[in-house]
Write a structure and sequence with these properties.
It is a single chain. By secondary structure, the protein is mainly α. The chain has 2 domains: about 240 residues, no CATH class; about 210 residues, Lysozyme, CATH 1.10.530. The chain is built from 18 helices and 11 strands. Helix 11 crosses helix 18 and helix 17 packs across helix 18. The longest helix has 25 residues. The radius of gyration is 28 Å and the shape is elongated.
Length: about 500
């Protein structure tokens, strides 16, 4: 069993232990949130100890970052795994006027009609044990789990959209669990509803017919004396850390958040949905960055594979990705931390060698939205960049790729199609290929990687390369394309 599987199993086990020890009330909500917090705290300590780091002296500083940023991947995103404190696999019992076993009435609409007539005639409800379902095998444990669906998908990390307290609508954000509910039926209308859908309840449980959720998630109160920034908020397509300035914006939700079901249950997160990010971070070599030196061929391949996966998940075509990779190979050799001239911010920086470097370094993508404040705020911007290169290479890569995607969009000012013919005069496009496409059209294009490398250079890079150096971009793009087609491609195939 891998590290991630062990961790997830521990989270699930500890969360359910906590659920079983508490009643379904506000006290349970508070205790469940605090227990979730302790579980996550234990994970963070384990991670630091695994790195051989003594964090006793820095613990308060680290812990204060918990809600200020998403450094520890606690904020919920699309796909977070949820459960309910009242979810169960055991048979469902409910109140009835007669001791009628419903499983004897399977498939008989006339029996159901007769039962409703009895119900209408007799309003005195006596508690009876009526089996609705014979119970589930424990191998069907995942019936007690569901995945969070995020409504507003304009803010994301690694292409997974952040959730807010507003993501609480049944059948939209919360798909009902395929299990039974530990709470009894309390009214005739609920009983009628179950009877009308009896066969489906026997197959999929009663949760989908009884779930009644609050309008918003509840976040655990924060000690504002020690954490004045509060929870991250979603503002105008970005994650904000200024709680007071954006008081009307929707708060993000974390693994300590809970959502009340008015029938007595609590929807609680088992994971944040960022597990694949955690898995990547368990491999120290998933992203390599250096502020001073060239990467090895193996490191370049590793970064190229990461970039390919990231852009592919954003909807880019294989050809478009390889066109960009050809340009990145020419500009940075796939190194997100490299300077054109060491620490000179007026020159180029990063995967694309944005020039001046402050184009990227002064953007909203180089901020606490991506990086812990621990690494930011030095007297010189290049010091921040070099710290992040050393300690947070994956976050640096993610930030630059998100910046690239954002600045290629129409209206952002970086993707320009006017005055591009001067670039194509140096090395022409293939017959029938248009060099005046939008950034969005580029991302989906299936034109040859050769042509897309030239289009990216003309519309985004706008380099001063002559014909020979443009041919290097083309050669690299075609080599990456063959590489991702699983051809036998090595460093000798690149310029």
């Amino acid at each position: 069993m891998g590290e991630f599987e062990k961790r997830t199993k521990k989270i699930v086990r500890n969360t359910f232990l906590n659920i079983e020890r508490n009643g379904s009330n506000f006290k349970q909500a508070k205790e469940t949130s605090h227990r979730s917090l302790e579980i996550h705290k234990e994970e963070i300590i384990e991670d630091y100890l695994a790195e051989g780091m003594d964090i006793d002296e820095r613990w308060n500083e680290i812990w204060n970052e918990y809600n200020k940023s998403d450094q520890f991947h606690e904020y919920l995103v699309q796909g977070a795994v949820l459960t309910c404190t009242q979810a169960m696999l055991e048979p469902f019992f409910f109140e009835s006027v007669e001791s009628i076993f419903l499983d004897k009435m399977e498939g008989s609409s006339s029996h159901l009609k007769a039962y409703r007539e009895i119900l209408n005639a007799n309003k005195s409800i006596n508690e009876k044990m009526i089996k609705l379902h014979d119970g589930f095998d424990e191998s069907e444990y995942d019936r007690k789990l569901t995945n969070l669906v995020v409504s507003e998908k304009n803010v994301s990390i690694n292409n997974l959209s952040y959730a807010t307290v507003k993501d609480a609508e049944r059948d939209v954000n919360i798909i009902p669990f395929r299990c039974n509910c530990a709470q009894k039926i309390y009214g005739e209308s609920e009983l009628e509803y179950i009877l009308d859908h009896l066969e489906d309840c026997k197959e999929n449980g009663v949760c989908k017919y009884l779930m009644w959720l609050n309008e918003e998630w509840d976040n655990m109160p924060i000690d504002t004396q020690n954490n004045t920034q509060g929870y991250l908020k979603i503002v105008d397509g970005m994650v904000s850390t200024d709680a007071q300035e954006n008081a009307s914006a929707s708060e993000g939700i974390t693994r300590t958040s809970v959502l009340f079901c008015r029938r007595g249950g609590l929807i609680v997160p088992l994971t944040s949905g960022q597990e694949f990010i955690m898995v990547r971070e368990m491999n120290d070599d998933i992203v390599i960055a250096s502020s001073t030196g060239r990467l090895t061929w193996e490191q370049m391949k590793m970064n190229a594979e990461y970039i390919y996966s990231y852009l592919s998940a954003s909807g880019w075509s294989m050809e478009a990705i390889c066109g960009v990779l050809g340009n990145m190979y020419r500009e940075s050799k796939m190194n997100p931390g490299i300077w054109q001239q060491n620490n000179i911010i007026k020159e180029g920086y990063g995967l694309i060698q944005w020039t001046p470097a402050t184009k990227y370094l002064d953007s909203k993508f180089f901020s606490t939205d991506y990086f812990s404040a621990i690494y930011l705020g030095n007297e010189e911007k290049y010091m921040d960049a070099n710290n992040i290169t050393e300690y947070c290479p994956q976050e640096l890569m993610n930030s630059q790729l998100d910046y690239l995607i954002h600045t290629m969009k129409t209206g952002e000012g970086e993707w320009l199609t006017n005055n591009t013919q001067r670039f194509y005069d140096k090395l022409s496009l293939s017959d029938g290929v248009s060099g005046k496409i939008s950034g969005e059209e580029y991302m989906a294009s299936t034109d040859a990687p050769r042509d897309l490398a030239l289009i990216f250079n003309a519309c985004y890079e706008r380099s001063g390369d002559g014909t020979m150096l443009l041919e290097e971009r083309v050669m690299a793009a075609e080599a990456w394309y063959q590489y991702f087609l699983n051809e036998d491609i090595g460093e000798e195939d690149f310029p």
